[in-house]
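Same chain as my last thread, 259 residues:
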Amino acid sequence: MLSDLAQNLRFLCAEKPSVAMVCREIGINHQQFSKYLTDHSKPSAHNLRRIAQYFDVTERALLQSHTEFADIHRYRKAHPDQSGQDPLSGVFPGDIGKLRPFLGAYQIFFHAPVSGSDIMVNTVFLDERDGIVYSRLIEALKTHRVGQRRWTRCDGKVSYQNGRIFVVDNERRNESALSMHILTPPPRQKKTYLFGTMCFLASLPRRIPYASKVVWKRFDTYRSVRELFKTCGVYSSDSLKLDPVVRNYLTKGTDDNWL
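reply #2:
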């Protein structure tokens, strides 16, 4: 069984006229490069960097699993305008192998922009399509009319970089700025919570930049999305409906109850 690196190199070389041409353009010995393709040798750090630069990929990408590498490469090839013009096209999804365990549904808790003492609760879903992880955030706030809610949807992308999860999204209907969540993955045995910071452009009472600590709490089991949406809204910080771990982090800035 060939290593992921050897499979990835073979995959990239298959798009070129010949391996000999690849070696000439990189400036690497053909016999040595053939050993990389047959998994009889590994490139040095210097050669790995030269190969990555030639194929316009990262060194880390060359070493990731072949299935993930091929999926992402095909997606970028199918969207040439994105990969050719977007300077952030290589950022998302980052290390998708480490990101996949976090796919699913979450409650999001943060301080309400209008009243810093209250806590807002939203719902977000993370799912993967064509090697990219997307976010879909739903805000459902109660209105003055009984039984009615004001719905807001934000769509975005998710990246795993250097041990952190980055979520960037935007509300498509309104002229709102991008929002960002920076989250710290928990220890392997503690997957219920993600702690971090979020920032966005507040809509009320004035459109000003706003930042807050944030907690994502995983919903492993639920009967319907309607069940999740019912938990959305604004809660007093001393509400018994709030998870003590969430309250502790948002009010004190620590996650002692979680450790």
